[in-house]
Amino acid sequence: MLPILTPDQMRRADTLAIEQGVPSALLMENAARSAADILERWLGEKRPNRPTALIACGSGNNGGDGFALARHLTCRGWKVHVWWTGARERMSPETATNLAALEGLRISTVHIPPGQFPPLPPPADLVVDALLGVGSRPPLRDDVLTILRILRSLPARHVAIDIPTGLNAETGEADPEAFCAELTITMFALKTGLLLNEGWHLCGQIEVASLGVPHTLAAEQADTWILEWSDVQAGFPVRRRISTKFDYGRVGIVAGSAMMAGAAALAANAAIRSGAGLVYLYTAGRIHSAVSPEIIARQLPSTPEGWLTPEALPALQELLERVDTLVVGPGTGIAATPTLHELLQLVPERLPTVIDADALRTITPESCLPPTRVLTPHIGEFSRMTGESRENVSRRAPWLARHWAQRWGGIVLLKHVPTIITDGQRSYWNCIGNPGMATAGSGDVLAGIIGALLARGLPPLQAAAFAAFLHGAAGDQCLRSSSAESLTASALLDALPSVLPQPAIV
User: Fold this and answer.
1) What is the pLDDT of residues 295-346, one digit of tens each?
2) Which residues of the chain are in CATH 3.40.1190.20 domains?
3) Out of 3.90.1800.10, 2.40.50.140, 3.40.1190.20, 3.30.1330.10, which CATH number does the structure's domain 229-235+247-499 have?
């Protein structure tokens, strides 16, 4: 797992490293060496024979990283020019030492005092932004803006150190003239703002530079994580050599209507393809022809228009007694909301339940849920459930998802970029997947995957996080053989077998 830190958490990790005997000067030196390695690896065969770089530095520690990087690149055969702004007397000792080293080695340095226009920029293959670090906040000062406008205009590869100047390292909000990087080399750990809001557009490829201290120092400060493939592989349920279908969980799916029978088929098919032993589909209206023959499907009493009615509750009560987990809501429609509300009142707290799509209409700001409930709203649904404005939800998704998960008591999987999965204390962000997955039925497939993993015995937070990862991986797998424009939910189903981990057999 990769930890994601806020600026405050990053500062605490730095302080802890220093308290444990690693001086800040050594942290800066290690960061610069690692950044130089990353840069050269990133350029690869595109590295010019006699490369040149213009590195713009501030007077804070981000500028100190830039000064140290300039020295390391010079040692590797680069012709380096450094612009720096700010005041020498305000520099930390390690930043001042690295600037003095450049001057002693006669590496080109030009000071640009506030209010002074920069000189004509030298030719450069690479422009590096090391002006402001994670402690800065938009809007930008005029003197920094002047330098940024010149840097942005240069026909060179653009790289940011730690964060692009003008980007809020916590929220991902940015000044309109923030630096736009092809590569961001961030120090020690990912920062929240790199993966939120404008961060996606400004950071380009993100690489993490080592500070030469154990990874556990960052992990100790983190409460937010990105899953990696190895995490899903290691945590995926095993298959026993001697076993039956009853050992792999029974999923009950209450979904569909006459107009949206496909949603029920997608959710049920996703559950059976994700490893569930048995899948029961209880649906109103009609049973879609695409329902896999392995699904045990039952048609429920419904209105003449094909919506679920309260007359279905006795059959649904029987379903609750025979399954290990429940998925409620895909394709049921607004008309079914009162019946779904009654059904959810009958679900025992011990039964893990995915509340999706129209079933989310049963959730209000006053709802109190057991920790076995998994809510899967998109931004609009979450706005309606909480009363928060859609814009605020979009801009503050991680914090609002955490707040409401704490308040409600269940798991929130907020469909956004990134997808936020949280129980209010610990969060996972899913950053894989692609815009082609913004298509009808994609969420139904995700609900089915969650249901299968819950039936396999994974805790709700882990099941939701693993499902989001596998769902995104299936979407990315689809792009290997087709276009994002043609990606469908059915294609996600077809891609699942190639992305599901090969479980251990014991």
Assistant:
1) 999 999 999 999 999 999 999 999 999 999 999 999 999 999 999 999 999 9
2) 229-235+247-499
3) 3.40.1190.20
* Positive or negative torsion for Cα 395, 382, 285, 288: positive
Q: How far is Cα 180 from Cα 123, in angstroms, rounded to an integer?
A: 19
Alpha carbons 451 and 274: distance in angstroms, whole number: 9
CATH number, domain 2-222 = 3.40.50.10260
Any idea what DSSP says for residue 361?
A: G
Predicted local distance difference test score (pLDDT) of residue 55: 98
Global confidence as pTM: 0.96
- Residue 417 tokens read as 């970029």
CA 73 – CA 67 distance, rounded (Å): 10
Q: How far apart are CA 475 and CA 435, in angstroms?
A: 9
The total number of residues shown for the chain amounts to: 506
Rounded Cα–Cα distance for residues 220 and 241 (Å)? 38
CA-based nearest residue to 333, from 274, 400, 261, 397:
261
User: Would you tell me how many other CB atoms lie within 10 Å of the CB of residue 506?
Assistant: 9
Closest CA to 351 of 321, 377, 380, 330: 321
* Residue 103 neighbours by CB under 8 Å, 6+ apart: 109
C-beta separation of 223 from 426 below 8 A: yes
Query: Residue 165 carries which side chain, given as an amino acid letter?
Result: T
Label the pairing between strands 419-422 and 427-430. Answer: antiparallel
Q: What is the pLDDT of residues 146-191, one digit of tens each?
A: 999 999 999 999 999 999 999 999 999 999 999 999 999 999 999 9
H, E, C per residue of 262-323: HHHHHHHHHHHHCCCCEEEEEECCCCCCCCCCCCEEEECCECCCCCECHHHHHHHHHHHCCC
CB atoms within 10 A of CB 153: 10
Rounded Cα distance between 435 and 425, Å, is: 29
What tens digit of pLDDT does each residue of 235-259 get?
A: 999 999 999 999 999 999 999 999 9
DSSP character at residue 436: G
In the chain, list all ranges with CATH 3.40.50.10260. 2-222
